[in-house]
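dude i think i finally got it to work??
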Amino acid sequence: MNKTLNPWLARAKSYPVKLIVDIHSRCNARCTMCPYPDYAHTQTQGVMERPLYDRIIREMGELGRRHHFRPYLTYCYMAEPFLSPRLHEYVAAALEQNLNVYLNTNAAVMTAPKVDALLATGFDGLIHVSIHGATPETYNRITGLDYHITLKHLHYLLEHYPPRRVLVRGVDDGWPEGEKEQWLAMFEPLGVQLEYLPPISRCGAVEHLNHRKEKDGKVRLYGCREHHPLVEMVILFDGRAVMCCQDMGRELIWGDVGRDGIEGVWNHSIRLNAIRKLYSGKSSNMSFLCARCEQAMGPGDMVGDLIKRSWKKLTHVIHA
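look at this
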């Protein structure tokens, strides 16, 4: 890849350092800021075949050994991992390949036996628990799940797992006034990490959150604030890889990992051309999903990010 287009491409690698793998594609929640409730009826759903999963984690483990890093792995970019009765088996197999596994869950089906089975594998990664609201009314309106069951499962986890390895995430999709403060006061005493976030439209897929208005329907792209496509690969249950974790519409398919392997897909012209387009600094119309994403960087974002990174580097040198 031509690394002169954008400063962030200077560190671009020929392999991913993180995988998001759909061991299945089902979710039990109906979150208002997620397109899953619609896509569940329009997209093909399924469960990843175990030989494909084993091939993926073996290749990722080999990449880590060859390039001297410990890869990251998590599951189900739009689904609930604890819906799988064999989640602990998937985790155990990944740990055997020296992958650093962490989980994202709404905790509604994270029952005590499933937690026990998970911890018995030796799992010690971060667990992100999504709890969108501090009251049953707000939580149920946003997720469609049972507030009290979720809290029960969270407290069981905290009784058996270090709270510092648990992150409670709240996405504020129309929380009532004062609920953020109530949410913080509710979870801070538990000793968990906290992450309060505004909702995003998932590249325009969630209509009521799609407020991006660009002159002439175009936007100048200088990259991704999180740089997801430079470091991670999202693999669907059938082996296809999509642009990133925000590409819930499966708009930009990089390739088929089951056919070409992780490195083959990562270095394919489809992905490389998409990365060049994202980091080109050129105008793009809204047919390119990154142009509709709130995490895309415009000129001001790029300058601000460079200043921020330079300042961090400078202060590190000063205090070293």
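The longest helix spans residues 299-319.
im so relieved honestly
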